[in-house]
Design goal:
Blueprint: H1 13-31, E1 43-48, H2 54-65, E2 69-73, H3 86-96, E3 99-103, H4 107-116, E4 121-125, H5 131-145, E5 152-156, H6 161-173, E6 176-180, H7 189-192, E7 198-201, H8 204-208, E8 213-216, H9 228-235, H10 242-246, E9 253-256, H11 268-271, H12 278-298
Parallel strand pairs: 1-2, 1-3, 3-4, 5-6, 5-8, 6-7, 8-9
Helix pairs in contact: 1-12, 2-12, 3-4, 5-12
Length: 300
């Protein structure tokens, strides 16, 4: 039976830990110069409706390191749902490649791909979730803090797809998550209703109190550019700066999924400071996504 990774909810706790363990093995092998051609000659189709630096480079590099091939389909190439139906596109790709990764606007697009494809489908980002990012983030926290069960993560900013996926992870793993957003910018209520270890507030200083991890994201995501000026004014009290960081635990680490709008959601002194692990988590996108692809193919 084929497996997909459309949502964090597609994996249970044991399966997440399997992916984390495989990520450790693959990362260690790469650092030691040991080849790990676990997906030899297997092709990956990468569908992009939204541009990306990290998603494109890490999936392409990862598939190459695994011995496979990565095929890039730009927004003007496939045009699924316009040039042909998403179902037909999924069925065609299933005859040619072994894995599909889709970075899309609407979550339903990646759901429809998964429903109609006979091969694994990975959500590289949608408006509802960003599961690969969160798996890399959780792996990074384990590396830095050794565990997740005693960690408190404070998410400050927009209740977007990244925030939703963190809530899903809190539900699956029991991670303590404290969220602060402006009123009207909260995460999906249906996600909040599923998580028992998540607290929601509109006060960033309340959210970060005693936090081990302080996390933020851009205030206006792709497709929200016309709201950027308005959001900047509303979100400024939620900026990750030295004052807010001082309200967290002394050894609190700072994360950002990137790209960062420096001087808006985070200041230079924080993202470039000693408590930042932003670029460690960016590197780990490579290792964790390799593990996800390998894990899915082996079980499909």
């Amino acid at each position: 039976m084929k497996r997909d990774f459309v949502s964090i909810f597609d994996l249970n706790q044991d399966e997440m830990n399997q992916v984390f363990a495989l990520s450790t093995t693959l990362k260690s092998s790469l650092k030691k110069g040991i080849a790990h051609k676990m997906l030899l000659d297997e092709p990956l189709a990468r569908l992009f409706e939204k541009p990306s630096l990290r998603t494109r480079v890490t999936f392409e590099t990862g598939m190459t390191q695994l011995g496979g091939h990565a095929i890039y389909l730009a927004p003007t190439d496939a045009r699924l749902g316009t040039r042909e139906t998403i179902a037909d596109g999924a069925k065609n790709l299933s005859r040619w490649v072994d894995v599909i990764m889709a970075r899309v606007f609407a979550h339903k697009t990646v759901e429809d791909l998964a429903k109609n494809a006979s091969i694994p489908v990975i959500n590289g980002l949608s408006d509802l979730e960003h599961p690969c990012q969160i798996m890399a983030d959780l792996f990074t926290i384990i590396e830095k803090k050794d565990r997740l069960d005693t960690i408190t993560i404070a998410y400050v900013g927009d209740g977007n797809n990244v925030c939703n996926s963190f809530i899903a992870a809190a539900r699956v793993l029991g991670v303590r998550l404290s969220i602060a957003t402006p009123r009207g910018y909260e995460p999906e209520q249906s996600y909040l209703a599923k998580a028992q270890t998540v607290s929601m507030t509109h006060d960033p200083h309340t959210a970060v109190k005693d936090a081990d991890i302080l996390y933020t994201d851009v205030w206006a995501s792709m497709g929200q550019e016309n709201e950027a000026a308005e959001r900047k004014e509303i979100f400024m009290p939620y900026q990750i700066n030295s004052r807010l960081l001082k309200a967290a635990s002394r050894d609190c680490l700072v994360m950002h999924c990137l790209p960062a709008h420096r001087g808006e959601e985070i200041t230079d002194e924080i993202i470039d400071g000693p408590q930042s692990i932003v670029f460690d988590q960016a590197e780990n996108r490579l290792h964790v996504q390799k593990a996800i692809m390998t894990w899915l193919v082996e079980r499909s």
